[in-house]
C-alpha cells in the first residue's frame, strides 16, 4: 500500500462485505471512475504516480500517468494500461456498445482519446476549443455523453475573467474525434464557435 490506492468492494443486499480489492504502488494512486461493463467485468480509471506495485508499465515521468484497470466481477485483474501523459489528469470516460472507450485528460492542453476494448489508443486529439477567449484560465469540469453512431458530446465548465466569461461549453464530435460544433454559454447569452 502507498499513500493512496484504488479501492473497490462489493456489498450484498444487506450491506455486508462480500469482497474488497486495492490496487496501486508505493505512491499516490487515485481512482476517478468505475464503470460496470455489460459482460459483468469492471473498468477502473484514474491516475497514478507510482512506478511499482500493480502498475505493469509505469513511465519515468515525475508526474502522474492515467491508469486503467479491467477486472472481472470478483475484482481480479484481467489487464491494466498506463498512459504516459505528463500531468495525467483524467477528467471523464465513457464506454460505447463496442466496448471502445473515449476519455478526456490533460497533457500540455486538454485532450480526448479513443481506445479499443483492450485499452489500446486508436486516436488522440487536442480539444483546442477555448483559445478564442482572451482571458480563458482553464477547465474546472468535464463530462462525456454518448451520441449516435459513435459520436459523443463533451460538456466543460470553464473559468476566466471577467465575470461575464463563458461558464459552460458543449461540443459534439464524430467517431473520429473531429469537432462538429461547439456552443458557449455565458451569463444569459449563447455564442457559437467561430467557423462552426
What does this structure look like?
The protein is an all-beta fold and 196 residues long. 0% of the residues lie in helices and 52% in strands. Strands 11-12-13-14-15 form a five-stranded antiparallel β-sheet, with no helix packed on it. It is globular. The chain starts with 5 loop residues before the first strand and ends with a strand.
- Low-pLDDT segments, ≥5 res: 187-196
Across the major sheet, the strand order is 11-12-13-14-15
What can be said about the biggest beta sheet? 5 strands, antiparallel
The oligomeric state is: single chain
The structure class reads: mainly beta
Supply Rg.
18 Å
Please state the average pLDDT score. 82
Give the total of beta strands: 15
Structure described in brief:
By secondary structure, the chain is mainly beta. It has strands spanning 6-11, 17-23, 29-36, 42-48, 65-71, 77-83, 89-95, 101-106, 110-115, 121-126, 136-146, 152-160, 168-173, 179-185, 191-192. It is built from no helices and 15 strands.
